[in-house]
Amino acid sequence: MKSLQIQSKIKDYTVSFENDFDFLDNLSRIAEKVVIIDKIVFDLYAEIFTKKFDRLDRIILEATEENKTLDYAKSIYEILVKKSVKKNLNIISIGGGITQDITGFVASTLYRGVNWIYLPTTFLAQTDSCIGSKTSLNFQSNKNLIGTFYPPTEIYINTTFLNTLPEVDFFGGIGETIKFQLMREVYPKDFGAIVEAVNCAAGKESLLPLIFDNMQVKLSYMAGDEFDQGRRNLLNYGHCFGHAIETTSNYYIPHGIAVIIGIIFANTISKNRLLVSAETSDFLNKNLLLPNIPLKLKKEHFNMQILKSMKSDKKRVGEHLTVVIPDEEFRLTKVDNVTESEFIKSFDETVNILFGSK
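Above: the chain's sequence. Below: its structure in token form.
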């Protein structure tokens, strides 16, 4: 598969799609480097990474949401300072989205920016977060409140890593795949074809072409709005409620699954505004959204703390709540006027959809 060249106002970068690990040979020859790698990934692929990268060049990362903090970033700065790294440092980041967020933030702020290269190892990171330039840290109970725009110079996609992902983590990428396929700007929507494409992905069929396709959809929304001031906001479809349920569940519900739940909520608001039809909403819930939640949800996580979290969401710009919803043709639009009573009505319906009306 061809590589993908991505233009950025910060620096252009390349996504390479790889079928083997030969590309690691070139990375191993980089002179001034530090490899920051998720501990789980290192343990799974220790034979490969110990051959390619010297022990002294490695920093093992505990990649958890709880560690996506300024304090944890500080601990990495301290290690790098002890290593006496210079401005010509190259950080090679290996792991999922949390690893990307932490190392990307460190790379963007150390010496006001050092070069970094990213190897995403989860389906979610490969299909979504690896492109777009964002780095993010959590602050107190607020997800991704702190961050920068700072893309890696190179990204290497190898789906071999997905073979060792736990099911719930793999379906995190399915959640973002659902989002991108629903956001594709082809009208009228062929929801049956979208269900078929997602089912193929869930069966791990033709993942590289699908990842490439998802990236193209994302890039179409980023075009002309790299810094998230306008049209790129629409990529938050499913994320307004999704981020809130992530934090309210103390990350028991991982990001991609939370996005699926957030899409159900957004579609419910749209239905109640007489935009998306009840028939379309029901079809998507039954055939696309609910079947791709491979996690036993806990009803106690669905409480009014979600409303409190959405009120402090960085995407909110006014007195009311901000949510990205589909219109009658399933074109996405951002609305900043979701009232508390409207939230409660759609929230209750969403809970009933997830758990049944009993």
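Residues 266 and 325 are 5 Å apart (CA to CA).
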